[in-house]
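[DERIVE STRUCTURE TOKENS]
===
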Amino acid sequence: QVRLVESGGGLVQAGGSLRLSCAASGSIFSINRMGWYRQPPGKQRELVASITSGGSTNYADSVKGRFTISRDNAKNTVYLQMNSLKPEDTAVYYCNADIRRTYYDADVNYWGQGTQVTVSS
């Protein structure tokens, strides 16, 4: 079955950098939109960045200029490069993707299990 697995989370100091990866595996015909969401402690999940299959990107205002989303279609992988990290970036980061399993199927939305990112002051 289709699965999204995040990696790269961890503990970093403010001002540091971290690179998250999310690899999709299983029966996949194509992947449309991919994105990263995050859920800070005690808050609701929010969109951080998204990227279309064609490479168009969108970012939350809070991360513009600091985070960069990219994807490698050949590897079915999306990345989130996080620079100049702030304590406010602390959250569980979730990978999300719209995946078409076969030519005859519609897109299905999938979520990863999440990876913890903690930024210390």
Notes: The chain has no helices and eleven strands. The chain has a mean pLDDT of 97.
